[in-house]
Amino acid sequence: MSSPPKVLAILGAGAWGSALAGLARYKGHQVRIWSPSLGNSIEEVVADVDLVLSAVSMPGVSPTSTQIQSIKLKENIPIVTATKGLDTETTFTPSQIWSSRCSDHPIVVLSGPNLSKEIEQELPATTVVASEDINAAKIVQQVFSSKRFRVYTSSDPVGTELGGTLKNVMAIAAGVCDGLHLGMNAKAGLLTRALPEIIRIGTHLGGQTETFFGLSGLGDMLTTCSSDLSRNYRVGYGLAQGKTLEQVLSDLGSTAEGVNTTNVLIEIARREQINVPISGQVYRLLNNQISPQEAVEALMERDLKPEFSEKTIPPKL
Ligand SMILES: NC(=O)C1=CN([C@@H]2O[C@H](COP(=O)(O)OP(=O)(O)OC[C@H]3O[C@@H](n4cnc5c(N)ncnc54)[C@H](O)[C@@H]3O)[C@@H](O)[C@H]2O)C=CC1
Ligand SMILES: O=C(CO)COP(=O)(O)O
């Protein structure tokens, strides 16, 4: 069963907004794109649309949702958020910000292993659409599902977006690991230990454990930590080659959310007393407190402990 063509507004004309616009057009939907760089009117773009999707980077979420809050959208249409980041001011996730501004509309998170360059190349990919309003998630599933893009639903929006957000920190660590040529044993060790760290933070912040084992968690971590198409991975790789963060970001010329996410995450971890060894070393590295080699040594020389304990992973598992 396929949904009849709809009119979509996509906010954000960057790599991800453009790739999602391509997927929607492939399904026969009409797509209007808004971005500050296009200089068009957001009111005109969202007028009478059937769905609004935000793919702005994290600094754009608060100002864009504030603008949408003051515009009368069609009643009850879903607002989809595809941003992977944490807000510097409030430490909130994008869906929490959208929910606080647009409470009359169901908020749906779209997140998964979705490198935009591969999607632009029309390679097959999977994703998750998650909402407390499962009917809204099903509508979004119908809108984007195609033979190129398989979309699953979930009722855990916060867990779904935290998987995609927190793996960006681990992608920086994975880039360091590969940039230092530490080998596959080290990489497997890093990624395997990264998952319980993501789960520890993600469940503390309200996500469900099982969500982090799915496409938006483990799936996105595997993609992002193994591909040099990932900007966050390239940040870590560049730092391992001895470049400064400024140099790496200027070479990138595009968004690497993991840098800001690491800083916000460490603020949360300190406030909430969450143990985040890998993210802690990424934070020190990004903030010029240690070298990549020292970060590796610090992780290898931590206090010895059992692999699994109640603190490592929630006891339900
Ligand atoms: N590129 C990718 O492969 C994927 C990216 N994402 C996420 O999507 C988000 C956007 O990523 P990209 O499109 O790759 O980044 P990008 O750097 O290519 O584009 C960012 C977009 O955000 C807009 N923006 C930035 N600040 C703004 C502000 N203050 N007000 C309004 N708009 C603003 C820019 O105009 C631009 O359209 C990020 O959170 C990223 O983690 C998620 C999945 C895949
Ligand atoms: O989220 C992504 C893939 O799912 C994109 O990763 P980067 O932002 O690191 O390029």
TrEMBL record:
The GO terms describing molecular function are:
glycerol-3-phosphate dehydrogenase (NAD+) activity; glycerol-3-phosphate dehydrogenase (NADP+) activity; NAD binding
Q: Pathway, per Swiss-Prot/TrEMBL?
A: Membrane lipid metabolism; glycerophospholipid metabolism
Q: Where does this protein hold NAD(+)?
A: 12-17, 231
Q: Does the keyword RNA-binding apply?
A: no
EC nos: 1.1.1.94
* Residues of the active site: 167 (proton acceptor)
Residues given in the record as sn-glycerol 3-phosphate binding sites: 84, 112, 167, 220, 230-232
Q: Where in the cell is it found?
A: Cytoplasm
Q: Which InterPro entries match?
A: 6-PGluconate_DH-like_C_sf, 6PGD_dom2, G3P_DH_NAD-dep, G3P_DH_NAD-dep_C, G3P_DH_NAD-dep_N, NAD(P)-bd_dom_sf
NCBIfam families for the chain: PRK00094.1-2, PRK00094.1-4, PRK14619.1
Output this protein's name.
Answer: Glycerol-3-phosphate dehydrogenase [NAD(P)+]
Which organism's genome codes for this protein?
A: Lyngbya aestuarii BL J
Gene that produces this protein: gpsA
